[in-house]
Design goal:
Layout: H1 2-21, E1 28-32, E2 39-43, E3 58-59, E4 64-69, E5 75-80, E6 85-89, E7 96-101, E8 108-113, E9 119-124, E10 129-133, E11 139-143, E12 151-156, E13 161-166, E14 170-175, E15 180-186, E16 192-197, E17 203-208, E18 213-217, E19 222-226, E20 234-240, E21 245-250, E22 255-259, E23 268-270, E24 277-282, E25 287-292, E26 296-301, E27 306-313, E28 319-324, E29 330-335, E30 339-344, E31 366-367, H2 397-401, H3 428-453
Parallel strand pairs: 27-31
Antiparallel strand pairs: 1-2, 3-30, 4-5, 5-6, 6-7, 8-9, 9-10, 10-11, 12-13, 13-14, 14-15, 16-17, 17-18, 18-19, 20-21, 21-22, 22-23, 24-25, 25-26, 26-27, 28-29, 29-30
Length: about 475
Amino acid sequence: MINILMHYIAYSMSSIFFMLTGADISGIKVDRQLKPGTIMAQVHDESEDDKVHIPPDISFEDLVVDINFHPSKPLIAAGIITGDVTLHSYASSANTLVKTFKHHKKATRAVAFSKDGNSLITSSKDKSLQVVDVETGKVSQCFSQAHPSPVYCQLVISDRLLATGDDDGNVKLWDLRKGHPIMELQENQDFISDMAVDEEKRFLLATSGDGTMTTFNIRRRKMVVQSENMEDEMLSVAIVKDGTKVICGTGEGALNFFNWEEFGNISDRFPGHPMSVDCIVPVTENIVCTGSMDGVIRAVNILPNRFMGVVGEHEEFPIEKIRITPNSEIIASCSHDQKIKFWHVAHLEKETIDASKKAKRDNKPKNLKKTAGQEDFFADFGKDLEVKPAAESEDDLSEEEGDSDNEEEPENADNGSESEESDDFLSDDDSDDLDEDDSADEDDDDSAEDSDSNTTESEERTGDEDEKDVTKDKPDSDTSGKQ
């Protein structure tokens, strides 16, 4: 009783103090430390110019598995566990549902816009791959059996090239204009968790649940090198530091680093996440945001490796996916709480890192959230949400990927990892033959195969009650993966 009375007196006195002094306590927010279960109160002293408006949350009735931003308009696509795909317009004042696509019979695991934004590409647990016209909502291409196993992830490489990976370690490279895969390889023994491609679009990097990262030569359409087995699931991958470093998130919560062209073994390892790092998105060349199974989105500085602070969180719900807008000012995240949340990250590049101090796992991170102020983020977007189809690119595959004469293979590390030897390099004659083959295929097949690939094979969607289980199950070994 005495303790309660003392707390009441202290609260009353502090209230009177703030009333008399006029102190502003509206900026006090609670932040989570790197160590779950502890909190830190922090006062944010932000000027009006530093404050920004971010879109409100988007709530769903079912679990959101994947999200992606439109390349030029304020639109965000979401893949739902029921098989639906939604398209929302977002703004600081409100979000609006624009379209709902019902083309998959099972969970939609991956969604991505084409480079021109005219098409939405979706992959599903029902093993299908579909290309949907954003303006009309009609399926322009349907591959009902795109993979022998459920598709786990996908990556849009260019206007015509798409990479997909499935539950059993199969990787396919698709030429959407030809309407069929141009590479099919199974170099992994477990699910393909994530993929990344360099700016020159020469090499495709794929992480896997079997503990390896595999590098594929896009031009040669073959595997180049596979890393040493890390004895831990490799769940996410991103290219940073102007293409000189590759960073991978693991099941144990560490970040593994590879030097570019040295993909046989890691060059550095940065532990600290309390649980698995399920997704990574670069914000700048030196800063990434990570989504962890503990529900926290963290900003991490790369070299020196430091936790900068907490950007956002979904309470205790695992972070499924984080994506960044084309202008790199806002990231969106989805989780098991059936919400898409938005977080401001443009201010991260202004944060300073003291490289002289040694990193500590129990450092208290700053709360990096920003939630109020100006609406200048949306100034770059057009007000008209109508997406008009663009003319189909006629560039040859050889032009997209660059001349093979100038192409370099990653060097194989001397660690016994699987790789291709010096005969993987293309000779001048081989390069010319490959260019001629691609050109001939395009001339002969443009009309016939494009017509075939544009044939709609949309199947009638049926309910699947099993897909509404909120607990996600990664293939076989993991319990936090996709449905």
